[in-house]
Structures are given as C-alpha cells and as structure tokens.
Design a protein that fits this description.
heterotrimer, A mainly alpha, B alpha/beta, C alpha+beta, A: Histone, subunit A, two-stranded antiparallel ribbon, C: alpha+beta, 3 domains, nine-stranded mixed sheet, three-stranded antiparallel sheet, 16 helices, 17 strands
C-alpha cells in the first residue's frame, strides 16, 4: 500500500497538528515505511484469536460513591495559560 | 567515607550508626551532580534546597530512632512522575513550565518511606525513544562514553546512577525504557509485571504497556526499591490487588535446580558478537551455579515490534490529546481561532518523534483502518503472550540479551525510525506479554557495558531477582564504574 | 401534515445520574458551585491522572436497564471517543461503544388510538459528561469543568416512533421511570434529562429510511414536540419541492420555534473509538442482576394497573396517582391506614395535590402526613364532622400541623347529631319562613335545599346534613 500526502494531511488535521510542507513530506515517507513494515502482521492468521487489551487479566475495579476532596481552585488553575472568572479561557468559539 | 559503592542497606546501617548523615549523603550527591551533569545532562531539575531540608528532617528522625527502609536515602525520579510543587516536564516543550499539583503514587510511596528527592531526570519526550535524544532538554550522554547514548527512554535514570549522582532512581518501561538504558549504562533495572506498581500520576505514553520500575546499582537495591513502590493502588484500575512479597527475603536462595530457558529467537544473526559472547558466558555462569539450561521457542517474537508500534502509538495518540493548551502547557496563539490555537500549540509543543507516533497512532485508529491495524495488533498480542505462558510451563525464567548491541553513538539512528524501533526487539515482547523482566550488567564491549535480561513469570519478580543476585554474587560486572573523572 | 410521508423518529436521551460523586473520580457533583472548584487531576485531565469507575453508576445503569426490559451484558467495556473540544479535558470522552451494559430493551406506550405500541430501545450505556463552555467572557470563551466527568446514561431508542406524540409518550414514560428509580432528578430545563431527536421522513410504503436530521437543544417536552413537528414540515416541504434532506445537526430555537443547521467548518468526525486501556472490563453476574431486580420499585405502569384492578380506582385517578413515585407512596400509605381507596384518591387528588400546587411544593413538602390525613378521614367516616367541615379542618391541619381531633376539639367543630337540637333549629327556621315551608309542603321539592342550607348556616355547619334532611321530611309529612 502507498500512503498519500493527502492522507497524511488528513491525519494531521485529526491530530490537531499544523505541519510544515517539509514535515508532511518527511512523515509521508516515514509512515509509509512503518506501515509497510507492520504489514508483516498479515502473515499471521488471527481470525480465531481473541484480542488482548491488557496482558494481565483484570476486571471490575470500582470506587465507592464517596466524596473525596477536590484539588481546590488555585491548584486547578495554577498551570492555565489564561483564566477569567475562575474559568479557563480559550479563543472565542462560534457555534 | 566513600559512599559510592555502598548498598542502600549499608547506607541505612551507616546512618543508624551515626557514621554519616542524610545531609552528608545528599550533599555528596548534589556535589556529584554539580561536578558531572554538565557533561551528562541526566537532571532536568535539581531540588537542592528542598532535598537538603528533607535530609535534615530525615536526620532528626534517624536520631529519634524512627527509621523507614529508605529514610534519608537520596534518590531521583524520571521527569514523567508527577511531583507536587516541582516542575514535571516529561521531556517536552509543551510542559516546560508545568508544576505538578499532585504526586504520583509510586513517588509518594518513596517519599513516605523517607527517601530524599534530589531532582527530576531527563528522558525521551513522553517516554518515546530508545536513545534519550528526543528530549526537549537536550540529549543525555552515556557516562561510559560521552559520544554515546545512555539508552531510552529512562536515559537520565540510568545515566545518573552510572555517574554516581543518586543511590537509586525510578523509571518507566513501555517497550524496554528501563532495561535498555540500564543495560547501556551498566546498572540494574527492573520492569515489573503490568499492574504490580501503580501508574497513577505517571504521565501516560501507552497505558496498556507502561510500567514503573526501579534502577539501582545492585540487584539488592533494586529489590528494596521495588518492594517500596509495588502494590495495589485504588487510584489505578489496572493495578493488581495481590500481596507484595518481601523481595529481599529469599534473594540469596541461589539458582540451584532452577530451569532457565533460552528463547532461540533471541539468539539471532544481527546480535553483536560481543553481546553474544557476554550472554553465552553468563549462561555458563548459571550452569556452573547449578541451573538447568534448556532451549525454548517464542515463535511470534519477530512480530513483536510491529505489534508494539501499532498498539503503543494508537494509545499514545489518544493519551496525548489532552495537551491542547487549554488547562496547562505552553499555548501558541495564532490565526484560526480555536483550531488554530490547538494546531499551533501542539505542533510547537511536541517534538518530531512524538508527532510521528501521534500521526501513526491516529492513522491506525482512524475510520476504516481500526480492524486492519489496532485490532490486528491486539490479536497478535494474544499470540505473543501465549508464547510466554507456554514457555513458562517448561521453565522458571528466560534468559536473553537486553539489546542487540551495546550503546550506540549519538545521532547514529536518528534518521531511521524503523532501525531505532528494531533495536528494542528483545525488550518489547515482555511489555506485550505484560510479564516482568530485569536487566543486569554481564560484560563489556570494549568500555561499554552489556546487559543480560532475565524474564520471569507474571508477578514472579522475586524469582528473577533471586537469579540475578546469584549471578551478581558470582561476578564483578556491577562493581565497574564509568570512567568519568 | 403531509399525508404522503411517513415520519420516522429515534431518540437519544442523556440521563444525568443522582450519584454523590462523578463517574470516574471522587469530586462532588454538586452544581451551582464556583467554576472549576469541583475538580481534581482526573476530571481536569491532568497528565498522569487515571479514572476509576463509580460503582453506584453501574448499579443505576443495571436498574434502569431492568426497568426498561433490557438484557444486562455479563461483560461490557469502556471505550474512548476521541475528539477535540475545550469542554472535553482529555481530548476524549470515556463512553461505551462496542459491548454496552444494556441492550435490547423496550417500553410500551399508549397511542392516540388508545392501543399499546412497543418502542424498541437499542441500548443504554454509561459515559462521562463534558464541562460547560460559555461564550460571554471578555477575553474569549470560558471553560468550567465542574460538570466534566459527571455520570450519564445514554438511552438510544430504535427509530420506532411515527409521530411527535409517540415520541413524547415514549419520553414521558422513560422520564417517569428514571424518576421512579431515583436515578435522575428529571429536570429538563437544567439538563438532567436531555433529548436529541433523529427525524426523517419517507414516502409511505417505502422501506428504506430517509436521510435524518439530528435535533438538539430540546429542553422541554413542549419544545421537543414543536421541534419535531417543525422538522417534519421542513423536510416534507423540501421533498415536495424536489429537494433533498441533508444529514446534519440542527439546533432548535425555542423563541422562534424553528431550528437552524449547525454545519461547522470542521470535517466529518472520526471518533476513533477504542477500548480504554485505563479501565478494566466490567463483569456483571446473575447474582448482581437479581439483587438489583429484587430492589426495583413497582413501576408506574404496573402500579396504574393495580390501582384499577385491585383498588377499583378509575383509570384517570390511577394515572394521576401513579405518575410520581412519592405521590403514589403517599396515597398507598393513606390507603393502608384508612382503607376506602376511592375516598383516599379523592382527597389526595382533590385537596393534597391542589394545596401543593397552590404552595408550589412537591409531595415531599406536604405538611400533612398520611397519618394526619387518615386521622381526618376517620372523623368523616365516624360522622364526627361533615365533608364540608372536614375541608376547613384540612386547611387548619395544613397550617398548624395539629391532628384532626385537636382541631375539631379546639374549634368546637364536632357535628351535631342530637335530633332535639337540630329540630329546635329547624322549627325556628320554619317559623321564620312559613310561606316557603307551605310551598315545600305543596310539592316544591327543590326548596329542601334552602332549609338544609339554613340549618347548616345556623348550626355553623355542624349539623349532620343527613339528619337535617330526615327531619325536614318528617316535618313535611306531619
């Protein structure tokens, strides 16, 4: 299979990465090489194989519905690039 | 007195006996960092003041007789662990000013047991890399040869130990990120079973593969550290609620009668002759100690790297979506409103390797490709895990090289991502199988250390530590020191 | 309505759960607090934080699933739905995609024709809510994450509804059930019960579904009906003019009664769902399901039927009383104390609900416990007071919280049953109204009421009306 530049641009948009033309070019080649390499998995017949999400079998991890202290406003906002009225600020969103 | 060759247990004794103080140990480490780190670049943040204050407090506790297993011992942790009030940048520009508001569980446990935090250790950005060249804070250099890489992604954690800057460190291992740098830097590194140590507060790269582990100067120190951080954490749904044994209790039990498997797929062409020779010599040591050596097969080994790079990048593409410049991180403003802000923030904040993996992972999960890539990889993961479980029916543990070569040169593989990825061929399958393994020094290639990997059954860290200790007691590789001075 | 077309409606309802804490962290989900004050590393999506599932959310999901006839999955998993938006801290929403907790449910609704119709429910899954994004900030849009990570159930129906009325009937029933179960406070305006409607039309007889529009921002039953009806007209007009319906999301505007397209410049979503590696599979065994089943309350439909069949109430009464669980419980407590279901029903519907409506309260605010009300009804039954006086006593109990006996005693409202005393009053009235009495005797029966009224007036309502009547008849025949 051959990965196209357009596909790479589409994936960059999905990933919210603005990439320079040169980066797109480089990534197109590299991703194509890597995707070519992972093709080798198709040598294996896995039709009857159950996928593994976790290597260690795990189930039912719960917490009780009990309140734990929150972080507190100051610490919640301490790393924010921009705040106003106890909120995080983002560029105006138009719906 | 010289501390550099002392084990943590010996240091504890010296502290209790009043032969040294935590402040003295901490000062010695800080002095060593000051003297060597311009060359090594292992530390990205040094907490000199708070470390000395904590050391003084530890000395008061020691004087009062209230001593935990790590009281007063200066340690350092990879910059992937959240440490409240201390910058936690994860090797990334996007977090270069990020002050963690909470502690990772594993770090909190060390602190509760009295360890002194010297600072935060350099790493590949978001733990993505095998050479520590992908760090926003610059590459780490191998103390054994400053032209060479220390391995990655926990390069700082291994190099700091090799340079004598700390008595023990914490790293994380997703595809070999503890074991490979431990091997390149001539120290001991343990990658515990998935679920053995809490991941809470450890910045995620690939959630189903990431695991926290110790790096140390000796097997015994590593066992002590592992005991200190292991255990169930209600804040991590994937941590396992099973008792943590005393890893030091049976550590001197030897290997007589142990059955050690050699996976034939790990002794392949492409294995550097020096590495091959060192590992074969180690096998003879084990034979001499009374272990039974048998050949086994892990037939799907050759698929592990492909499988890993699909699963790890897919999970990473989602894990790293939170770095959007809204709640934290370095934001880039620009044209294009919200999406412009997102795209520029992320493009400027992430390095090339991180972008490459986000792109690959996004692609592998995207509409129409999920089954062919992500699901396929999860199925192959089942086969790889089954290989190990089958092998463990025949043997107690597996013995392999850690990496095909000793430390390579800076810049040697940066232009060829696939070649870089393939250098993790012997460590990656263990993460896919979720089981435990460790790396310990077993020889030299010229003046570069070579590592031996012991792979254990799930939750059987005690046995590989015991086997490693037996080897260590028989050899002097771990006593060699990097020629830094 | 364009009779050439058939309307097809499917509904997605987001039910906000009444847990104390969020779905994946221990933050309180108390609303109305200062923005971002109810947050922690998990719900802020800080680096390194991990989710842990609130068990109560699973309990509520199973409960709701059983109450709506679902199969509860023995094995279900959480998935990440990946997209970027400022109110979504992690860049993905934790939801369920493949293997949700409940599948293959249904509800019966009553159709306009009076019959029953089964509406299929595809699935119910658990997920986290997003935060709130507001646009009034001086420096940009503002993000408050107090609501982020609060628990939701998403209830997805089959496209089984054929009119706005059917859609409303389904929604009201679902609403009633989640309120009955106590898993949701049911407040539509505040977004505790949010509905998106997928609406399409197709020429009658056509099998394939038409292109659908998704309607959002429907925060009352009335708006939902309006929005669907508007959408059906819009689509029919489009098709009539030879146009095509495009698949899109439309935002309803309650002020204009119209909707507008939310076509964004963003390309079509690709959510890249995959199992969340931070969470482990959820396994629900039979024992767990049976325990929850045993704890289920009697549901409104069953109650309604029982009220009609066992208590002999009219359909109307049964419907009103069973509509709200607290009212039904009040009524049942009253019947348990007093018997006489129809009389109890009259008083609960007539007096209690009326008084509550006037005071803008709910049954929880009712100052008259079932015990107090039963005490009052007891005094009517034993002829201590008349129905009329009882209403006065009711008001007084409502005001003071005293018992009926106390009020009757203090205000001297005990009914006069002494024949001599009533006869004396009657004689007095006849004497003063001899002409009318003559007419009554002459056969003008409707004057009976006049005399009864006069006696009641003079006795201040305390005379037993039945006895007054008997005495008047006696006087006529004398």
């Amino acid at each position: 299979m051959k990965l196209t530049r357009e596909e790479v641009e589409h994936v960059a948009r999905l990933s919210r990465l603005s990439l320079e033309a040169a980066e797109i070019d480089a990534l197109t080649g590299q991703m194509d090489q890597l995707l070519g390499y992972v093709e080798k998995l198709n040598e294996l017949d896995t039709d009857e194989i159950v996928p593994t999400a976790h290597a260690v079998p795990l189930e039912n991890a719960f917490r009780a519905d009990e309140i734990r202290p929150s972080l507190g406003l100051e610490r919640a906002l301490q790393n924010a690039p921009q705040t106003e009225a106890s909120c995080f600020v983002v560029p105006k969103v138009i719906e | 007195m010289s501390f550099s060759q002392m084990s943590i247990r010996q240091l504890q004794q010296a502290l209790r006996d009043g032969k040294t103080s935590s402040v003295e140990l901490t000062r010695a480490c800080l002095a060593r960092i000051a003297a060597t780190d311009e060359r090594i670049n292992a530390f990205v943040t040094v907490c000199a003041e708070t470390a000395l204050a904590a050391a003084a407090e530890a000395d008061r506790k020691i004087a009062a007789g209230a001593v935990g297993p790590l009281t007063g011992i200066p340690i350092a942790v990879k910059d992937i662990f959240n440490t409240a009030g201390v910058r936690t940048s994860c090797g990334s520009r996007i977090l270069e000013n990020y002050i963690a508001p909470y502690d990772a569980t594993a770090f909190a446990k060390l602190q509760e047991q009295g360890a002194i935090l010297l600072g935060k250790l350099n790493m590949d950005e978001f733990a993505m890399g095998s050479s520590n060249e992908n760090s926003a804070q610059g590459p780490v250099r191998n103390p054994w040869d400053l032209e060479r890489v220390p391995g990655g992604s926990s390069g700082g954690s291994a190099a700091a130990l090799a340079a004598g800057q700390a008595f023990a460190t914490l790293g994380t291992d997703t595809g070999g990120s503890i074991r490979q740098p431990a091997s390149f830097c001539g120290v001991v590194g343990v990658k515990p079973t998935y679920g053995r140590v809490s991941r809470y507060g450890v910045i995620a790269y690939a959630s189903s593969l990431d695991q926290v582990g110790p790096l140390a100067q000796s097997v015994e120190d590593a066992a002590l550290l592992l005991g200190a951080v292991a255990g169930y954490d209600p804040l991590d749904s994937t941590s396992v609620d099973c008792p943590v044994p005393d890893y030091l209790a049976g550590i001197d039990g030897g290997v007589k009668g142990m059955k050690i498997g050699l996976p034939r797929e790990y002794f392949i062409a492409g294995l550097d002759p020096a590495v091959k020779q060192a590992v074969e010599a180690a096998i003879e040591v084990y034979r001499g100690l009374g272990a039974e050596i048998v050949e086994v097969s892990l037939p799907h080994t050759d698929y592990a790297v492909a499988c890993y790079y699909l699963i790890a990048t897919a999970e990473a593409s989602s894990n790293l979506a939170r770095y959007d410049g809204v709640r934290y991180g370095v934001r880039q403003q620009g044209e294009g409103g919200l999406s412009g802000m997102y795209e520029k923030t992320r493009a400027a904040g992430f390095g090339d390797e991180v972008k490459r993996r986000i792109m690959l992972g996004t692609y592998a999960l995207s509409s129409g490709y999920y089954d062919a890539y992500y699901l396929k990889a999860q199925k192959v993961r089942t086969l790889i895990r089954a290989d190990f479980l089958k092998a463990f029916k025949e043997v107690d543990l597996l013995l392999t090289p850690v990496a095909p070569t000793a430390a390579f040169k800076l810049g040697e593989k940066t232009d060829d991502p696939l070649q870089m990825y393939l250098s993790d061929i012997f460590t990656i399958p263990v993460n896919l199988a979720g089981t435990c393994a460790l790396s310990l020094p077993c020889g030299m290639d010229g003046q570069l250390p070579i590592g031996l990997q012991l792979i254990g059954q799930p939750f059987d860290e005690a046995r590989i530590l015991q086997a490693a200790k037996a080897y260590e007691a028989e050899t002097d590789w771990h006593k060699q020191r990097a020629p830094l001075d | 309505m364009h009779s050439r077309y058939e309307v097809v409606i499917g509904l997605e309802v987001h039910v906000q759960l009444t847990t104390k804490t969020k779905i994946f962290c221990g933050c309180s989900k108390d609303f109305g607090q200062e923005p971002n004050s109810q947050t922690c590393p998990v719900c802020l999506g800080l680096p390194g934080a991990l989710p842990v599932l609130n068990k109560q959310v699973v309990e509520y999901a199973i409960k709701t699933g059983l109450a709506t006839n679902h199969q509860i999955a023995p094995h279900s998993i959480f998935a990440r739905k990946n997209y970027f938006y400022p109110d979504l801290p992690k860049g993905y929403q934790i939801s369920q995609f493949e293997l949700p907790i409940c599948e293959h449910g249904w509800l019966n609704i009553e159709t306009e024709a009076g019959g029953k119709k089964r509406i299929g429910i595809t699935r119910i899954h658990m997920e986290e809510d997003a935060g709130k994004l507001t646009h009034g900030g001086a420096s940009g849009s503002l993000v408050d994450l107090n609501r982020a990570c609060t628990p939701l159930l998403e209830v997805v129906s089959e496209p089984d509804m054929r009119s706005a009325d059917e859609a409303i009937a389904y929604l009201k029933q679902l609403h009633q059930i989640v309120m009955y179960l106590g898993v949701c406070d049911g407040n539509l305006e505040e977004g505790s019960f949010r509905c998106d409607a997928n609406v399409s039309i197709r020429p009658k007889g056509q099998k394939e579904l038409g292109t659908r529009a998704e309607l959002k921002n429907l925060n009352s039953f009335r708006f939902i009906k309006q929005a669907i009806e508007y959408e059906v007209e819009r689509q029919a007009d489009l098709l009539d003019e030879g146009g095509k319906v495009v698949q899109e999301t439309r935002l309803f505007d309650a002020d204009t009664g119209m909707s507008r397209s939310m076509r964004s410049k963003e390309e079509a979503h690709d959510y890249r769902y995959f199992p969340d590696p931070d969470l482990v599979p959820l396994v629900v065994d039979e024992a767990w399901i049976e325990r929850v089943r045993a704890e289920l309350p009697e549901l409104p439909e069953v109650k309604r039927q029982r009220y009609v069949e066992q208590l002999g109430l009219p359909e109307y009464d049964a419907g009103v009383l069973a509509a709200e669980r607290a009212v039904a419980e009040y009524f049942e407590a009253l019947v348990a104390l007093h018997g006489q279901p129809k009389i109890c029903s009259n008083w609960v519907m007539g007096e209690v609900l009326r008084a509550l409506k006037e005071s803008d309260g709910t049954i929880a605010d009712c100052p008259l416990s079932p015990e107090l009300l039963a005490g009052l009804l007891g005094r009517i039954a034993d002829n201590t007071i008349s129905n009329k006086i009882a209403k006065t006593v009711f008001e007084e109990i409502w005001r003071s919280g005293k018992s009926a006996d106390q009020v009757i005693e203090e205000q001297g409202l005990k009914q006069v049953t002494d024949t001599g005393a009533i006869e004396a009053i009657l004689d007095e009235i006849i004497a003063a109204n001899l002409d009318q009495f003559a007419e009554l005797k002459g056969g003008k029966d409707k004057l009976t009421g006049f005399f009864v009224g006069q006696v009641m007036k003079l006795s201040k309502g305390k005379a037993n009306p039945g006895m007054v009547n008997q005495l008047i008849q006696k006087k006529i025949s004398e």
